[in-house]
Design a protein that fits this description.
Number of helices: 6
Largest sheet: 8 strands, mixed
CATH topology of the largest domain: Rossmann fold
Order of helices and strands: EEHEEHEHEHEEEEEEEHEEEEEEEH
Radius of gyration: 21 Å
Length: 312
């Protein structure tokens, strides 16, 4: 096992030493997509050949599959697996983090989607990098998750990227207030609000003009969606804050709350959305050569002439 050097600042969210070895690996992904399904089968075969116990979703149809695997419901995978490998795009990673929420089961992403901010292992190197992870050569990164509820009632949702208040009716503007730790902040008019983690700062929040926040920062950003006033700007607060959004009553007010693309429920006029830090973060695994800034350059086309040349 490689012992990589760790600067003090890095050690706050990453642990390079004494990495855990994994004996049971669960594979998740939209296997209906042929590219994803083929990758999952190839990975399952490769893992089984190395002596690792493999879990696959029970909906996946296996024909003449020589490797020994177990088909289980996806919801059960975190109970039996000590590593989840998500094959697909960032949406698949978000799905996997919801599966493992509240458990000490890390997630490794293999990119078969488009952007790949989170799923950063390429298909060309997936066997090599997976072998490295199984050998203990990887970095662990702790990522904040948010917990959201409406009017303090069930259901409760968790989100790695963001919690979003959105209007339901086209052409209707929402009026709402934001409160942080019980203190009134602002009254807004517009299409809604994105409450994003540092991880989610490169997602919906970025399209709304929010800042890019390095994932090691313990912070949350509030980004108004199409605000009615130009002075209604994004604000960054500490992750430990309790954020409350109160929907102001006006005729035909209709809004709903979406957590990582999944609908939590409708927020009625006079209702309150409460967002705070989830009890446990999620752990993402990266290869030893993982470079957050390289990913930004690649995905956002930064650099001279669109090039991503490393200068060291």
């Amino acid at each position: 096992m490689v012992e990589a050097q760790c600067r003090p600042a890095d050690c706050q969210s990453r642990d390079y030493l004494m990495n855990k070895r994994f004996s049971t690996v669960g594979l998740v992904g939209k296997h209906e997509d042929p590219r994803v399904g083929e990758s999952m089968i190839s990975l399952a075969r490769h893992l089984a050949e190395t002596g690792v116990h493999v879990l696959l979703p029970e909906r996946l149809q296996l024909e003449e599959f020589e490797a020994e695997v177990r088909l289980v419901p996806e919801a059960r995978m975190p109970e039996d697996a000590d590593l989840i490998v998500a094959v697909g795009g960032d949406g698949t990673i978000l799905h996997a983090t919801r599966l493992v929420a509240g458990r000490d089961v890390p997630v490794l992403g293999i990119n078969r989607g488009r952007l790949g901010f989170l799923a950063d292992v390429s298909p060309d190197t997936m066997f090599k990098h997976l072998d490295e992870v199984l050998a203990g050569d990887y970095t662990r990164e702790s990522r904040l998750m948010l917990r959201a509820d409406i009017d303090g009632a069930a259901p409760v949702a968790v989100a790695l990227n963001d919690v979003v208040l959105q209007k339901l009716d086209t052409g209707r503007m929402l009026d709402f207030e934001t409160w942080i730790d019980g203190r009134y902040v602002n009254t807004h008019g517009g299409d809604g609000l994105v409450i994003a983690t540092a991880t989610g700062s490169t997602a919906y929040a970025l399209s709304g003009g929010g800042p890019i926040i390095h994932p090691e920062l313990d912070a949350v950003v509030l980004v108004p969606i199409c605000p009615h006033t130009l002075s209604d700007r994004p604000i960054v607060v500490r992750a430990g804050c309790e954020i409350e959004v109160r929907l102001i009553e006006r005729p035909d007010t209709r809004a709903h709350v979406v957590c990582d693309g999944q609908i939590l429920g409708e927020l009625a006029a006079g209702g309150r959305l409460r967002v705070r830090r989830a009890e446990k973060p999620v752990t993402l695994l990266h290869t030893l050569d993982h470079d957050y800034y390289r990913i930004l350059r690649s995905k956002l086309h930064w650099g001279r002439g669109g090039q991503t040349t490393d200068r060291r």
